[in-house]
Design goal:
With about 375 residues, the chain is mainly α. It has helices spanning about 15-25, 35-65, 70-75, 80-90, 95-110, 120, 130-140, 140-165, 170-175, 180-220, 225-235, 240-260, 295-310, 315-325, 335-350, 380-385, and strands at about 265-270, 275-280, 290-295, 310-315. It folds into two domains: about 25-115 and about 125-220, no CATH class; about 250-385, secretion proteins EscU (name from scop, 3-Layer(aba) Sandwich), CATH 3.40.1690.10.
Length: about 375
Amino acid sequence: MAEEQGEEKTEEPTARRLTQARERGELPRSPDFGGALEVFVVCLVMVSLGGEIIEGFSRLLKRGLSFDQAQIQAVDDLPSLLGRGFAEGIWAVRWVLLASIAVVLAAAALNGGFNISGQAAAPKFSKLNPITGFKRIFGAQAWMGLLRNLAKFLAIAAVLGAVLWSRRDEMLAMSRDALEPMIAAGAWFALMTFTLVSAAVAAIAALDVPYQRWSWLRRLRMTKQEVRDEMKDIEGRPEIKRQIRRKQREFSRGRMLEKVKDADVVIVNPSEFAVALEYDESRSAVPVVLAKGRGEVAAAIKERASLAGVPLVSAPPLARAIYFTTEVDDPIPEGLYRAVAAVLAYVFRLSASTPGVDAPEMPRPTLAPEFMFDEAGRRIAEARR
């Protein structure tokens, strides 16, 4: 929709878009970096250990071409001889193999990282679209590939020309040597030349790596509308967020109501408020609010308290004061200590009284002006101004 409106892609891709691109198998890879680097390292290994490798193969060749009549007649030993020869051949080029494996892994890590994507392996019929094919052939990526190949050709030509021109006298001198020294010198010269050429190609491929990453990020750019839509998807639609908040409130309310049975008293304002308090000297020297609510929640608290046998004490000003000043699981404020202590003393005397004997008198605790609230949560002294 944003593209139809002509909105430009000016925003950097988000982390989610980058992750989705990797899941599709789209990585900022340079197509020539790994191969060029591997060839260059293998050439270096050959330059460093070529004599040892040639010597190992020479021994293997001599042993393979030397046999006696007993070995010819022992037909059953041929598989073991072939297996031993294969193992010796692998051992002779072990450093080349190990260097190749290490370079492949390192090049993959440097060239976009490791990634396994089932989406990339799945067949895509959109690739059969001729219009898309023409865009790939004549698009910016194709032109950059052409320039990259042209740069490789020029680099190879320049290195070859420079090496051949600088060694022209040496090449003429080799042609006058005996066959064996000429072959050895020619092989060494060819290996050195190939190493220099592969180094030039690897350098070009290394320069292509940052370009591929820049081009990859540029292709994944987003419009402002796409960023907004993605943020909505991540954060959730407003109606979904409201549902989640409602579920969270219901879950929190359920946990809070479960604690009402542990309360020592529930102080209520019969019309709307209910506050459940617990006083446990072993855990806290101050009474703690286990649950609080108004309206339907207050009714649920009173119902739970009645079922659990928790005393209900009607003290409207105190119930409002605790409700508006204290959160669940917090101790009551210091200014309410005396009023709450009077209520708890009444509850404890009531539970210890003998049935049939006069019950203790209901307390009427007095509160400081700063703890006097109306049902809207406003201090009464301020509301009267």
